[in-house]
Amino acid sequence: MEPRLEVGGLTRRFGGREVVRDVSFAIAAGQVSCLLGPSGCGKSTTLRLIAGVDLPDGGTIRVDGRPMVEGAVRVPPEKRGIGLMFQDFALFPHLTVAQNVGFGLPKGTPGRAERVADLLERVGMTRHAGKHPHELSGGEQQRVALARALAPRPRIMLMDEPFSGLDDRLRDDIRDETLAVLKAEGTAVLLVTHEPTEAMRMADEILLMRDGRIVQAGAPYTIYNNPVDLRAAAFFSDLNVIRGRVEGALTETAFGPFLVPGVPDGGEVDIAIRPQHLKIDFDRAGKGPLPTPSHGDAARGVVERARFMGSESLVEFRMDFDGSVLRAKVPWVFLPKPGTPLWLMFRRDRCFVFPREGQPRVA
Ligand SMILES: Nc1ncnc2c1ncn2[C@@H]1O[C@H](COP(=O)(O)OP(=O)(O)OP(=O)(O)O)[C@@H](O)[C@H]1O
């Protein structure tokens, strides 16, 4: 099946600097993709190019196989079948909720009143239909904005940090409701965010962006568990990093040897472990647990501090082997006293091994 939105080799320069570099991806009908990356990496610019309010220096944009930008073709924004939702969405203050939702549907459109009523019902705003925007809370205004953007049945919805103006609890609810409505409409969604948790919650596919490029694309599970590099891994959580030097495709660490094929002798590697993947074991008169094939060796550390975070505890260790600090997250309550010696180990299939950035890699 033809993707709903297909972007190929999209490039945009400002003053000689490539802000969007060779960006390609596709989104199917009913799919939610999140463009995720730090501030300034080119997310909003990409969205503006797709919306048609800015033009690329290179690349193609297609909607249902029809060229929007390709060769000499430049389809204007209003003819692209694209709906927009931004953080500073503005409802028309002098129009009622129902009139705001109906705004995008020309008078005389068959089924106009039914469409407005149906959307108000779906976003739970039927009883507010006659109110004006200033009589609504932020969350209610957001629901109206969603209904208004959906009224003309856009084939694609572009959303730029649409939930960032809402407080945390409300944001979770509105996100989930928005997702349900968009899925029911079968709209292809491209959502821009700099928050990994928002992307994990919303996306079928995450497009991880950095310095104008998409560095990795995949389902949230894949991106979280198989990051392409250390920076991609660190974008999603705090990371413990153990440094190693390679000899004969192996690096020796206090946690045992690690295989590092493709890194030349003398090369440096980073072994990264998320805090929730460190396993803690007790000290038995100066000895730790025995090594296992799945976990490697245990290394000893001394508790520096332990904090209760609500659903988990965060324990910081000063490691015997090099004096570095490693952080472990433990579900619920685990608050050992500072100075307690404990042993750490981790499952080999839960850590990431990357050659240090900027080093040559042997093919
Ligand atoms: N019209 C413009 N002229 C010159 N530079 C621009 C223009 N628009 C954007 N830029 C630059 O392009 C880069 C990417 O901007 P963009 O707004 O796409 O990033 P972003 O990832 O959406 O960031 P944020 O999350 O902060 O909104 C920035 O360095 C920005 O300063």
TrEMBL record:
One Gene Ontology term of the molecular function aspect: ATP binding
Keyword Transmembrane helix on entry: no
Keywords: ATP-binding, Cell inner membrane, Cell membrane, Ion transport, Iron, Iron transport, Membrane, Nucleotide-binding, Translocase, Transport
PROSITE patterns for this protein: ABC_TRANSPORTER_1, ABC_TRANSPORTER_2
Gene3D superfamilies, sorted: P-loop containing nucleotide triphosphate hydrolases (3.40.50.300)
One Pfam family named in its UniProt record: ABC_tran
This protein's name: ABC transporter ATP-binding protein
InterPro entries to which the protein is assigned, alphabetical: AAA+_ATPase (IPR003593), ABC_SmlMolc_Importer (IPR050093), ABC_transporter-like_ATP-bd (IPR003439), ABC_transporter-like_CS (IPR017871), ABC_transpr_FbpC (IPR015853), Mo/tungstate-bd_C_term_dom (IPR008995), P-loop_NTPase (IPR027417), Transp-assoc_OB_typ2 (IPR013611)
Residue ranges occupied by any ABC transporter domain in the UniProt entry: 5-236
TM annotation in the entry: none
Source species: Rubellimicrobium aerolatum
